[in-house]
Design goal:
about 180 residues, alpha+beta, 4 helices, 9-stranded antiparallel β-sheet
C-alpha cells in the first residue's frame, strides 16, 4: 500500500464481532477503511505533558492561565499528529495489527450514541457491516464518519441510502 494521507482519521476503540476491544486508529482512504492497532494514547499521556511543560510553564509567567491552556492544547495536538503519522506508516506496511476493509465490501453502517459517561464525552460507535455479515465497531468521536464514508462510497459509484435507525445501506457492488 502506498503511504498517503487518509480522507479522514480518528483514534478509536474497535472490535470485530465478539473479539476483545483494541485501541488504535481508523483511517478512511478513497478505496478502503483501515484499522491500525496501536497504543494511541500512550504518546498522548507521555508526549503531550512534555510539550505542555515545555511551553505551558514558561508561558504561565508571561500570560498566566492562558499559557497553561495553550500548552495543553499544543501537547494534545502534537501527540495526535504523531499518532496519526505512525498509524499511516503502519497501515502502509500492512503488518500485524492492520486490518483492511475494502469499501466495495461494505453493505451498511450505523451510528449509535454512547450511554453513561461516554455520552458526556460525546462518544459514538460506528458499526460497519460487510458483505459476509461481519460487523466492525469503532468507538470514539465518530459523529461525522457516516457522512465521510457515504461520500467515499458514492465516489466509487455505490448507491447509499439512509435508514430510519440512524444508519445507511449500500447497494452491492456490481463490478
Amino acid at each position: 500500500m502506498d503511504i498517503q494521507a487518509p480522507i479522514q482519521s480518528q483514534s478509536a476503540r474497535f472490535l470485530v464481532g465478539d473479539a476483545k476491544q483494541k485501541w488504535g486508529y481508523v483511517l478512511l482512504h478513497p478505496d478502503q477503511l483501515v484499522t491500525v492497532v496501536s497504543p494511541t494514547d500512550i504518546v498522548g499521556y507521555l508526549g503531550g505533558p512534555a510539550v505542555f511543560v515545555g511551553f505551558g510553564v514558561p508561558l504561565f509567567h508571561l500570560i498566566g492561565w492562558l499559557g497553561v491552556v495553550i500548552g495543553a492544547l499544543m501537547g494534545r495536538q502534537s501527540a495526535d499528529a504523531y499518532n496519526k503519522l505512525q498509524a499511516i506508516r503502519r497501515a502502509a506496511a500492512e503488518g500485524d495489527g492492520v486490518t483492511v476493509i475494502p469499501l466495495d465490501l461494505i453493505t451498511g453502517a450505523r451510528t449509535t450514541k454512547s450511554q453513561g459517561s461516554g455520552s458526556f464525552w460525546e462518544l459514538q460507535t460506528l458499526v460497519v457491516t460487510t458483505a459476509d455479515g461481519t460487523e466492525y465497531g469503532f468507538r470514539g468521536k465518530m459523529s461525522n464518519w457516516q457522512t465521510y464514508l457515504a461520500s467515499a462510497l458514492a465516489a466509487r459509484g455505490r448507491e447509499v441510502r439512509a435508514t430510519p435507525a440512524d444508519g445507511m445501506t449500500v447497494t452491492p457492488w456490481a463490478g
